Amino acid sequence: VRGDQGVAASEGEGLRLWSVEHTNLFVDFEQTQATEGLFADIPHTLNLRSESGDRVVLVPNVSVCRPGIKGQPFSTDCVLDLFDTEWIRMRHNQVYLYKVHISGTFAVAPSVESELYLIANYILCRDYASAFSACGRVTTDVELSDEGRNNLDLVLKHATTDGNPNALAVVARLCLQLMDSPVVFRVNIATVMSDYLSKMVHTDT
How far apart are alpha carbons 71 and 120 in whole angstroms? Predict the structure, then answer.
C-alpha cells in the first residue's frame, strides 16, 4: 500500500495489517472469494475489513488504460500510470473505499466520482454487465467536480472506442440516467445513440 495508506502490524486473532489512514480497517486476506464477481477483474484493489465484519474494497484513484496488444484484440490487461501529472492535478481523492453489501452482490460507492471511476474500470476489464448495472446508481443534481469530470471522460473515452456493442449500451444508459442533470457529456450523444441502435441486436444488456 502506497503513500499515506501505510499499514501497521498487530497481534490478536493472528497477525493483522492495519491501515494507518483508515484506522478501523485491516487487510482481509480471506476476502478474495467474497468479492469474486465484484472486483475480481480490477487489478489495483485491496480487500479490507473492520472489527465488526464490514467488508470494504480500497481502489487507488490513478490513471488507468488498456493498451492495444497485437494479436489480442479483446485483451483485458490494464496499465496504471502513477505519474500522470494531469490526473493527479484533477483528483481530490487518492483512494476510493467501496463498502460491500452484506449479500456480497454489489458494493456501495461513496460518491458519484467513485461510481464513475468504477464504471470506467469495469469497461476496461470488459465487465459490461457490472458497468451497466452501476450506471443505475449514478445520480446528481449539480455539475460534476473536476475529479468527476475526469472520471466521466475516462468512461466515455474507453466506452466509445471499445469496439464491443455492450460498451455503447453502457454509455446509452449513463446518458439516460443523467439526462435531467446539469452534467455535460463531451461526446456527440446523437452519434453514440445512433451507433448503439445500429448494434443493439448484438448486445447482451
Answer: 24
Residuewise pLDDT in 10s, the chain (205 residues): 444 445 555 555 667 888 888 888 988 877 555 555 578 788 889 889 898 888 999 999 999 988 888 877 778 888 899 999 999 999 999 999 999 988 877 889 999 999 999 999 999 999 999 999 999 999 999 999 999 999 999 999 999 999 899 999 999 999 999 999 999 998 888 898 899 889 998 888 5
Identity of the amino acid at 72: Q
Phi-psi region of 197 (alpha: psi -120 to 50; beta: other; left: phi over 0): alpha
* pTM, two decimal places: 0.86
Q: Which three cell numbers stand for residue 133?
A: 448495472
State whether the Cα torsion 131-135-138-143 is positive or negative.
positive
Q: What are the backbone dihedrals phi and psi of residue 167, each rounded to the nearest 5 degrees, phi first?
A: -65, -40
The Cβ of residue 10 has, within 10 Å, a number of other Cβ atoms equal to 11
Contacts of 201 (CB under 8 A, 6+ apart): none
- Helices 146-159 and 112-124: crossing angle in degrees, nearest 10, is 20
CA separation for the pair 154, 65 (Å, rounded): 9
Query: ∠ CA 78-136-163 to the nearest 5 degrees?
Result: 40
